[in-house]
Amino acid sequence: MATKVKRNKALERNRDPLLKGKVLLGVIVSLLFLIPIIWMLFVSIKPDNFSTSNPVEWFLPPYTITNYIDIVMDSLILRWLFNSFFVAFITTILTLIITSFAAFAISQMKFRFKNFIFIFFLLGLMIPGEATIIPLYEIVKSMGLIDSYTGLILPMIASPLGVIILKSFFDGIPKEVIESATIDGCSYFRLYYKIVLPLAKPALAAIGIFTFIGSWNNFLWPYLSILSETLYTLPVGLPVFNSTYSQAYVLPMTANAIASIPVIIAFLIFEKQIVKGISFTGIKG
Hints:
Blueprint: H1 2-14, H2 19-44, H3 66-74, H4 77-108, H5 114-124, H6 133-142, H7 149-153, H8 160-171, H9 175-183, H10 188-199, H11 201-217, H12 220-225, H13 234-243, H14 250-269, H15 271-284
Protein name: Sugar ABC transporter permease
Keywords: Cell membrane, Membrane, Transmembrane, Transmembrane helix, Transport
Family: Belongs to the binding-protein-dependent transport system permease family.
C-alpha cells in the first residue's frame, strides 16, 4: 500500500509540465550561490602573490596549502574563530533561557501589567539596534566591561522577537494540559521545565539558530566594545587582517576560507534544523 502511494506521488510530480523548468532554475540558482564559494577555495590554494588577468587561471595549477599553514601559525585567526564560537554559543544559551522564562511568565502566569509588558516587548522591535549603541556603550563602560567577553555577550542576550515567538507558541499549548498539571500540584518551574519546554522544541530551535547566526555575524558591537586583538571576533578580525594585504588576493581569500569552512560544515550538518527554523518563523511570525 505504501509503495502504491509513493508511486502515485511520483506520477503526480511527473505530470507537472513545469517540473523540468523548475529543476533547471533550481540548478542555476544553486550554481550562482556555489560559484563564489568554489572560486574562494581555489584562490586560497594558489601560491602567495599569484596574480593573473585571466580568471580561468585561478582554477588551474599550481596549488599549495602553505597559505593555510602560514596564516594559522602567523595570525590570530584561530583565536578569532574561537572567540566568535564562544560568544555566539554563550549568547544563544543565555538568550534561550531568558526569553523562555519571560515568554512563559507572560503567557502562563497571572500578574499586573502583563499586557503592558508584552506591548513593551513589541515596541522593542520598532527600535533599530544602531539607535541604542551609544547608551549601551555608556552603560557597559560604566560597568567596566569594555574589552571583555562579558561586555560582548550581555548586551546581546535581549531578544524581543524571541519572547514574542515563544509567547505565541506557549499560548497555543492546550489549556487542559496546563490545568491538569496544576491540579496535580505542579509548580510553575516544573510546569515550565517538564511540560512547556519539551513542547516548545521547534520554537527554541528556531530562535537558537537565528540567535547564533546573528551573534556570529555581528560586527558593530564587537568593533566598538573590543580593543584587544586577542578578543576580536571574526567579523572584526578579518577586515583588520585583510587591510594589511590590500593589494593581494590569495592570503585574504585564504583567511576568509578558514573562517567560512566551519560555517559551511555546520550548515551541512544542521541543514534540516535550519530549514525547519526558517519555515517555523515564517508560519508563526
